């Protein structure tokens, strides 16, 4: 399992394959996990989700951006997607990776880009989530959030339960809208828990701490054990349903997604789209090699 995970994480970081895949169109069954390569297809998918009371967080896929031209082009695509959310009147917000808009190039340039995005989104009351990437980018992501959050309360981020520092970060961000996840990258034991059991325990601990606070929380997981425990916890503690939501990725456990929404829980699906699907897809295979079955079904059903 460890070896398979490492294998797919290594593939996700391969820049040659990442740039090659942009020209392939959606291949290898990625169409089951990625809602198309253009805005029209993602809007269609979001409307379908909205029709069953599910909201969307749209990820205009892209990472490993090392030139200002690419980062500026990514920013423009994100701005276009924000305009499309408004124009189509869909219930959706955006998830953004800061490396996509320049974090590996220059901090101030990235801050300028995300400020422009936050401003455009604030105009339409659209929330912007800064996805959390690997540990090497964490502090800068939090610094950027701190720089933005007074002016733009419509920006939040993600806390990863596998990191030792997350409980402290949670306290620092107690007034900010946050998504809580287990964590998707490969981090060293110096900074992160390694066993599934330890990560699961910390995940539940952080979720409970957070749900007792005031700010809005997204519990992002496909793990039914965690979901069931959260359901029990909110009931036992009278936590109002408008204080939290569940989130899952597009294409995963779709029946469970609909059931949770139908039960009256706020629910948001993370909907990735675009040509830059390769690293996202490989990380999903790393998390759960059984996802290959989903991908294979995608390959044969095309
Ligand atoms: P995990 O993969 O640990 O599975 C637990 C159990 O749940 C499995 O053993 C199985 O029983 C069941 N299960 C899981 N998937 C199933 C399926 N498809 N079908 C049937 N059973 C299944 N990470 C990050 O580092 N930064 C980020 O910004 C984000 N953002 C993000 C947004 C959203 C909406 C989600 C759902 C996830 C993320 N992640 C993330 C990824 C996250 O950190 C984590 O890697 C994955 O969600 C996998 O962990 P899970 O909690 O889903 O359960």
UniProtKB/TrEMBL annotation:
<keyword id="KW-0274">FAD</keyword>
<keyword id="KW-0642">Proline metabolism</keyword>
<comment type="pathway">
    <text>Amino-acid degradation; L-proline degradation into L-glutamate; L-glutamate from L-proline: step 1/2.</text>
</comment>
<dbReference type="InterPro" id="IPR029041">
    <property type="entry name" value="FAD-linked_oxidoreductase-like"/>
</dbReference>
<dbReference type="InterPro" id="IPR015659">
    <property type="entry name" value="Proline_oxidase"/>
</dbReference>
<feature type="domain" description="Proline dehydrogenase">
    <location>
        <begin position="43"/>
        <end position="287"/>
    </location>
</feature>
<dbReference type="InterPro" id="IPR002872">
    <property type="entry name" value="Proline_DH_dom"/>
</dbReference>
<dbReference type="InterPro" id="IPR008219">
    <property type="entry name" value="PRODH_bac_arc"/>
</dbReference>
<keyword id="KW-0285">Flavoprotein</keyword>
<dbReference type="Pfam" id="PF01619">
    <property type="entry name" value="Pro_dh"/>
</dbReference>
<keyword id="KW-0560">Oxidoreductase</keyword>
<keyword id="KW-0547">Nucleotide-binding</keyword>
<protein>
    <recommendedName>
        <fullName>proline dehydrogenase</fullName>
        <ecNumber>1.5.5.2</ecNumber>
    </recommendedName>
</protein>
